[in-house]
Amino acid sequence: MLKNLSPLLSGALLSALDAMQDGDTLTLVGSGYPEEALTSPIVHLGEDVTTEAAAEAILSVFPLDTADPSPIVFLDLAAEPYEVPDVAFAVNGIASDAELRRIPMTRLDLEPFVALAQRSAVIVRVGSDAPPCAFLFRRGAL
């Protein structure tokens, strides 16, 4: 184990993150995400890992894009313009803390989200979430 590195950051995940190029996307999904939509390499973090814990571990080493006005996209299943899932608020706070700046997020419906997610460099899958949630993180330069 490396010092000050989250135990959730396995060798497989660190290798996948290191292989990503600037502008590539990482998709973080819970178990409720449609299986048939997963086309990129998948790193499983475990059934007991929450989306928030995975986001905190990933964003501790993963730089978000500074050129993109919204480097995080989240899957919106609520279909209510003023309703944001608690997990989206939490991930936004984690990202803002990791980047030491406010991180805007964009919401997408299922079809456009899946279209973007299918072009991700890597998919990180975590345990069960209710309601189903998913995020895209766009990588920036170090």
Automatic annotation (TrEMBL):
InterPro entries: RbsD-like_sf (IPR023750), RbsD_FucU (IPR007721). Gene3D superfamilies: RbsD-like domain (3.40.1650.10). GO terms for biological process: monosaccharide metabolic process. Its EC number is 5.4.99.62. This is D-ribose pyranase. Pfam families: RbsD_FucU. It comes from Leifsonia shinshuensis. It is an enzyme of class 5 (isomerase).
